[in-house]
Amino acid sequence: MRIRSSPGGEVLSYLSLFELVRKSGERVIIDGPCQSACTLVLSVVPGNRICVARRAVLGFHAAIAVDRNGRRYSASDATQVITETYPAPVRAWIGRHGGLSRRVLLLRGRELTAMYPACGSLQPVGNGLPLITFHYQNLKLAVGAQGTCHS
After folding, report:
1. Which of 17, 31, 99, 145 has the fewest CB atoms below 10 angstroms from its CB?
2. For residue range 12-60, what is the model confidence (pLDDT) as tens digits?
3. Cα dihedral sign, 30-33-38-43
4. Model pTM score
5. Where are the beta strands (DSSP E) in the chain?
């Protein structure tokens, strides 16, 4: 699975997607912005199956609850639970940067490659054949002819 750009979204949709990826054994290449709920890939997919490209940037913030009228509220209990699911090096980095809040914390560059390997030595995802696009809940995905998953 190659993440080229994800603004995040509804947490349960991302958790469901990443659980499918975890079960598939597929590698995850973070090759661009992975914001908000997208960062949960770090909580679900084993770290030895994740690599980061030069353009990778992870954006973390506190959980937000939205009511039926679209009003947004802080969700401190959810923020605590989510924070605890991240791997220890990510939790430590978040702590060193003041913890999760409304302000987005960006993890990239050397700090990111200290936690996850660069993708340079890995084979590219896909087989060069056309992609078939479909939607999984609110997430748009493209799957190669041999089942390789991209987002």
Report:
1. 145
2. 999 999 999 999 999 999 999 999 999 999 999 999 999 999 999 999 9
3. positive
4. 0.78
5. 2-3, 28-30, 33-35, 50-52, 57-60, 64-66, 72-74, 105-108, 132-136, 139-143, 149-150
